[in-house]
Structures are given as structure tokens and as C-alpha cells.
Design brief:
Blueprint lengths: L1 E3 L11 H13 L12 H13 L6 E5 L5 H9 L5 E5 L3 H13 L1 H5 L3 E5 L12 E6 L8 H13 L1 E12 L2 H8 L2 H21 E7 L6 E7 L15
Parallel strand pairs: 1-7, 2-3, 2-5, 3-4, 5-6
Antiparallel strand pairs: 6-8, 7-8
Length: 238
């Protein structure tokens, strides 16, 4: 598994208007907004790198928990011509903003990308589509461990064989909660970490440290198992 530290991005500070909106929604509902500031450009690049790495062929891409759209814009800048792009966002104010973003982004229009925003929770998202890349901005450390397990299994399920799931986790949150939160909250956070560790052990192919984010974060890349070879083998040469 790869462990890399991207070079800091000096232009990665959140846009002022987005920051105010994000903070207001965080105060309103931590179920759909799990931070106090939008993610920066360096983190967006780290999470959307699998789209860039797969080259010019059309892709099917899903973003979950898009917020004000920092990852959405990074994906829009990288999606190949003719791709499909689904965005799942439960917060109605964010969803409205995202519809405007996807409808007016010049590269999505110029490259004939089929983009659709779904105002719903991931648990209620109905689709038969499977995706080459899934990018998650969900605030998983705010949820119960059982719910995190359901969400992660659903995200893996939505991938094509060999597809990539990316998500981020802030540095130091477990230690901070152990020092400042109640014992029950610290235990919940520790249990969520254990759930995530299980998925990381099984599927992780890389972890990048992004210092140029507020707060600094890990960018995780997980990969679903590849399809078996036609003869029933693994596809590896002898």
C-alpha cells in the first residue's frame, strides 16, 4: 500500500462564501455536514486522482456527500468525454448549489458528460449502475459504527470489479475526541475507527497525507476485487 505526502497547495483555502455556507450548515445539521470548512484543492486532487489515472475512456463516476462541491469541481475538470457523473447529496441547500454547478460547468457541457444530482441519502439512493470511481465526502466519524459499516459496504458494492473508492479522514480526530468528548462519544469514535480499519485491511491500495487542508487529512484509496478471469482463475500469468 502506498503512503505519500502531497506537496502543500498554497491556493487551497476555501472560498469565503462557501466557507460561510458550510459553517452554517454544519451548525444546522452534522448528519449531512461533518466539518466546519469545505475541503481544499490539494485534498480534492488526491481523491480524484483515480479519474485522471484511467485515461481518456468514458467513465462512470459517483460522488457521495458532495457538500458545496470542492470534489465535484475537481471531478468535472478531470472527467473524460462521454462520462456519466452521479452526485448524491442529502442537504437540500447543497443539492441546489450542486445542480447549478453541474448544469453550468463548461467542461461538463463541452465533453458531453451526463451529470445528475440526486437529493437523497446514500442508503436511499436507487440505481443499477456500477461505477469505475466512487468519491465519498461523507462525515463517517459522526455516525454510529453499524451505520458506517452499512455505508462502506454499499460504497464497495457500487463499484465495478477493480473500481476505486476514495474518501478522507482528518488527522488526530480520535485523540482530540478522547481528550474533549464524553467517554461514550470517545468509545463510539474508536469503534468507527475499528470498522474503517477492517475495510482498509481488506481493500486499501494507498493512503496519502494532505497537510494543505483545513484540518490536515488522509486521502484513502480502496479498490474492489477484480473480476475473475474467463477460465475461472485470477487472471495472473503463470
Amino acid at each position: 500500500m502506498n503512503h505519500r505526502t502531497p506537496v502543500p497547495d498554497r491556493a487551497s483555502g476555501p472560498r469565503r462564501g462557501e466557507g460561510r455556507m458550510f459553517l452554517a450548515e454544519a451548525v444546522r445539521d452534522l448528519r449531512t455536514t461533518g466539518a466546519v470548512a469545505p475541503s481544499g484543492r490539494a485534498l480534492a486532487r488526491a481523491l480524484t486522482e483515480p479519474v485522471h489515472a484511467q485515461g481518456p475512456r468514458p467513465l462512470s463516476v459517483l460522488e457521495v456527500g458532495a457538500g458545496t462541491g470542492p470534489f465535484t469541481r475537481a471531478l468535472a475538470d478531470r472527467l473524460p468525454r462521454g462520462s456519466r457523473f452521479d452526485v448524491v447529496e442529502a442537504n437540500p441547500r447543497f443539492a441546489t448549489r450542486l445542480r447549478t454547478l453541474t448544469a453550468t460547468h463548461p467542461r461538463l457541457t463541452a465533453h458531453s458528460v451526463r451529470a445528475e444530482v440526486h437529493e437523497t441519502y446514500l442508503e436511499d439512493f436507487k440505481t443499477d449502475e456500477r461505477y469505475d470511481v466512487v468519491v465519498s465526502g461523507l462525515p463517517l466519524t459522526n455516525f454510529a459504527p453499524a451505520q458506517v459499516d452499512l455505508i462502506m459496504s454499499r460504497l464497495i458494492e457500487l463499484l465495478h470489479p477493480g473500481g476505486t473508492l476514495t474518501y478522507f479522514a482528518y488527522l488526530g480526530t480520535r485523540r482530540a475526541r478522547a481528550l474533549t468528548a464524553s467517554r461514550a462519544e470517545a468509545r463510539r469514535h474508536a469503534a468507527v475507527d475499528e470498522v474503517m480499519a477492517g475495510y482498509q485491511r481488506r481493500y486499501a491500495v494507498g493512503r496519502w497525507t494532505v497537510w494543505a487542508n483545513l484540518p490536515p487529512a488522509y486521502a484513502w484509496h480502496l479498490q474492489s476485487p477484480p473480476a475473475p478471469a474467463p477460465d475461472g482463475g485470477t487472471g495472473n500469468p503463470l
